[in-house]
Specification:
The complex is a heterodimer of chains A (173) and B (437).
Chain A: H1 23-33, H2 43-54, H3 61-69, H4 73-82, E1 94-99, H5 102-106, H6 109-120, E2 133-138, E3 150-152, E4 155-157, H7 165-170
Parallel strand pairs in A: 1-2
Antiparallel strand pairs in A: 1-3, 3-4
Helix pairs in contact in A: 1-2, 2-3, 3-4
Chain B: H1 20-24, H2 30-38, H3 41-50, H4 63-68, E1 81-86, H5 96-102, H6 104-118, E2 122-127, H7 132-147, E3 163-168, H8 178-185, E4 209-213, H9 214-233, E5 244-251, E6 257-262, H10 267-274, E7 284-288, H11 308-313, E8 322-327, H12 332-346, H13 352-369, H14 377-387, H15 397-411, H16 413-418, H17 424-436
Parallel strand pairs in B: 1-2, 1-4, 2-3, 5-8
Antiparallel strand pairs in B: 5-6, 7-8
Helix pairs in contact in B: 2-6, 2-9, 3-6, 3-9, 5-6, 6-7, 6-9, 12-13, 12-15, 13-14, 14-15
Classes of the chains: A alpha+beta (173), B alpha/beta (437).
């Protein structure tokens, strides 16, 4: 890890210019660029690579990615803030995404969400004080026959009942 | 289940998808062989046109017609692109996940055959970021297909070359719109583009581009192998539309799920025979035929054939063909409020009617849901349905959002009226009347 990011009291990096891309991430982004006719197309991939390392995309990484792809930092930021799976603030060790679309609405996502909120003591968009979980809403996860559905990081959990939430969360220490 | 009657799903196994050897032993890549060795690209397109394959992503546009608008021949641009729309996010839709997780090689083969038809230089599978398992399996399938010589430079000795990549997205619903998908793939915010020019002329990086849905593409190898007549016969006597369709049902039915059935089966057959009817103690209130952006239909519409024209005549759209079943324990306003919250959140913000109109509809619906609606709210919602309708916005997002709203008002106006708070005067009058009594 070679990050020299300094986190200020606002939670955002204050010394953007010091961000140094990890050598492995640099290689991954270069590989990603090779998939496209124009390096700009790797912007989402590059943001995801950086996010994989830190859990979120620190401010300093934005201009670095811009320089690597030959596009303005403002364009990279525009992309980063458009897509909901790119996080521009620190998140918890695990990110819970609860589907709130119509099929899960009909099968009871609201009760599920309430239980998760109760267990963690947070609301949507918030992170637990111990930095373990962030809770977010997500649109239809394409498993409507097995609702309600939620994801924890890359794991998708189907047909989750409120009474199963406590045990499910234990699997993510 | 056989190839003849369930072409899309007979090789699907989400628990253990076939690797390339297993897939090859079940006719896998036979269509690539046939197309590349025995057919001209234009013959593949002509065959798909004859088969009357229509887009399974929701709009039902004829696939062969779409392809035939791509410039071909010596003077055509050398770079052309085939994009697979695998950004499955239409609420209530869960079909492409199964096809990709359960038979990744089928999609890879479909991309190769379809790419050959339009002589694409590259293909991208635009996959939503959350489909992590599908991404892994597709990457593996692409790797295996490359090693086997079906992909890359001059597959099977063909003069044509084709590279295929998985592009994993980073969220939002709007990249499912084809021009927004192109912007997203280029690494931009996923705003839709104005048409014309159509993507077939100037799409990805300004080059000819075709965007097709996963399920649409997966039909192509079967049409190439078995012919257009066979494809018509799959749904003969049931529908003018050809082939099979992945139909499904979700909501509080006994057996929610997904079934490959001939085009034109009735919604009643899907709901009652395949999904087993409603759960105990519940009655069917209404249903969305194919995703959040289709108009509600009622129990009276259950005997309609689930095909593009029949459902359109009933005032809705078949959309993705997966029923979202609403039971009688729900107020229609709560369901529509949930739907419009989704559309409001997912508006890309590019054009004003959509960006401002959708949150407005949510505020009105939330008030009606609490019983705090004001006289005129229903009329305002109806006005919003017009202002956000087709032709008033940049893309189809807001017109899609309007469909469940306008149909909910049409069929359940009494519930909307009940959400309007009784004026204080009337309330006082009632109290006075009670006091006297």
């Amino acid at each position: 890890m070679s990050t020299a990011t300094v986190i200020g009291s606002t939670g955002f990096s204050t010394q953007a210019e010091e961000y140094r891309l990890h050598v492995d991430d640099y290689a991954s982004i270069e590989e990603e660029i090779g998939h496209y006719e124009d390096p700009r197309a790797a912007s989402i991939g590059a943001l995801k690579i950086v996010q994989k390392r830190h859990g979120w995309v620190p401010d300093g990484a934005i201009p670095v990615i811009g320089r690597l792809l030959g596009i303005p930092a403002s364009d990279v930021e525009g992309v980063a803030t458009f897509y909901n799976l790119i996080f521009r603030r620190p998140v918890g060790r695990y990110v819970i995404k609860v589907c709130d679309s119509v099929a899960c609405f009909l099968t009871g996502y609201e009760e599920l969400k309430e239980e998760v909120c109760k267990q963690l003591g947070i609301g949507l968009g918030e992170t637990t004080a111990d930095g373990r979980f962030t809770l977010l809403p997500i649109c239809c996860l394409g498993a409507c026959d097995r609702g309600p559905v939620l994801m924890i990081d890359d794991d998708t959990h189907f047909g989750v009942l409120p009474q199963e939430v406590a045990r499910l969360l234990e699997r993510y220490p | 289940m056989t190839a003849d009657t369930r072409p899309l799903t007979y090789r699907v196994d989400p628990a253990a998808p076939l690797d390339i050897r297993g897939y090859e032993s079940q006719e896998g890549y036979a269509a690539v062989r046939k197309a590349l060795k025995e057919m001209q690209p234009s013959e593949v397109t002509a065959l798909v046109k004859e088969a009357n394959l229509r887009g399974r992503g929701g709009a039902g546009f004829p696939t062969g017609v779409k392809w035939s608008l791509v410039p071909m021949g010596k003077n055509a641009p050398r770079q052309k692109y085939l994009l697979c729309n695998a950004d499955e996010m239409e609420p209530g839709t869960f079909k492409d996940r199964l096809l990709m997780e359960g038979a990744p090689h089928q999609l890879v083969e479909s991309m190769i055959v379809s790419g050959y038809a339009i002589q694409a230089s590259r293909g991208y599978i635009f996959l939503r970021g959350e489909y992590v398992l599908a991404a892994e399996r597709l990457e593996r399938a692409i790797g295996e297909a490359k090693v086997a010589g079906y992909l890359g430079a001059n597959p099977l000795g063909s003069p044509w070359s084709f590279e295929l990549f998985v592009h994993s997205g980073a969220g939002r619903y709007i990249p499912g719109e084809e021009t927004a998908l192109i912007n997203s793939l280029e690494g931009r915010r996923a705003h839709p583009r104005a048409k014309p020019p159509f993507p077939q002329i100037a799409g990805l990086w300004g080059k000819p581009t075709v965007v097709n849905n996963v399920e649409t593409l997966c039909n192509v190898p079967h049409i190439v192998l078995r012919g257009s007549q066979w494809f018509h016969e799959l749904s003969q006597g049931k529908s003018k539309d050809s082939g099979t369709k992945l139909y499904g049902a979700s909501g509080r039915v006994r057996r929610p799920g997904l079934w490959e059935l001939p085009f034109g089966v009735s919604a009643r057959e899907i709901l009652e025979e395949h999904a087993g009817g409603m759960q105990a103690g519940l009655k069917l209130k209404c249903w969305l035929p194919g995703g959040a952006s289709t108009d509600f239909l009622t129990p009276e519409h259950l005997d309609l054939a689930m095909d593009f024209d029949t459902i359109a005549k009933a005032g809705s759209r078949m959309g993705t063909g997966l029923l979202t079943v609403v039971d009688d324990s729900r107020s229609i306003i709560s369901v529509v409020r949930n739907l419009e919250e989704f559309f409001a959140r997912e508006s890309c913000g590019w054009c004003t009617p959509c960006r401002d109109g959708l949150p407005w509809s949510v505020r009105l619906l939330a008030a009606l849901e609490r019983g705090e609606g004001r006289p005129g709210d229903i009329e305002t919602l109806e006005q919003l349905c017009r202002f956000l309708g087709p032709g008033r916005t940049f893309c189809a997002h807001a017109p899609g959002a309007v469909e469940p709203l306008q149909s909910a008002i049409k069929y359940f106006r009494h519930e909307f009226e009940a959400g309007i708070a009784r004026p204080p005067v009337a309330a006082e009058h009632t109290r006075a009347a009670q006091a006297v009594a």
